[in-house]
């Protein structure tokens, strides 16, 4: 594993842990989690925040899927797929939440969501552009 692939692997682990932990917290203690996130007021009944938590957890867990692979080649292929798929998810969430904030449908305290998603999507685009998980030349 070269240096860039190690960086990509570390990214997968950190992004997965971040979303996975946030999702679990939203499912178990939604109101407290929103306070930690700096969100001024909960949007809906806690059951809806728990449901969103399940989605956030699922996205986070997807970053760990490559590590279920038996071979380095399979892990590399799955890493690329995870980065491509979650990049799209992050862009959609960032655009949706930004538009919702600008329209006044979400309080500005939700700004951390689009900012973090744009940041992570950008990092993923860079990892993909640099081909950090491409098969080594033989």
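-> sequence recovered:
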């Amino acid at each position: 594993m070269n240096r860039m692939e190690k960086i990509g692997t570390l990214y997968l682990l950190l992004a997965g842990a971040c979303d996975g932990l946030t999702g679990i917290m939203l499912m178990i203690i939604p109101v407290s989690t929103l306070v930690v996130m700096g969100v001024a007021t909960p949007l809906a009944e806690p059951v809806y925040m728990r449901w969103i938590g399940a989605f956030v957890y699922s996205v986070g867990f997807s970053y760990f899927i490559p590590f279920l692979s038996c071979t380095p080649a399979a892990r590399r292929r799955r890493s690329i797929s995870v980065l491509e798929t979650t990049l799209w998810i992050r862009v959609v969430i960032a655009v949706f939440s930004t538009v919702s904030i600008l329209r006044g449908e979400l309080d500005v305290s939700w700004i951390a969501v689009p900012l973090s998603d744009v940041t992570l999507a950008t990092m993923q685009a860079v990892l993909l552009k640099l081909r950090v998980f491409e098969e080594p030349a033989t």
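The mean pLDDT is 93.
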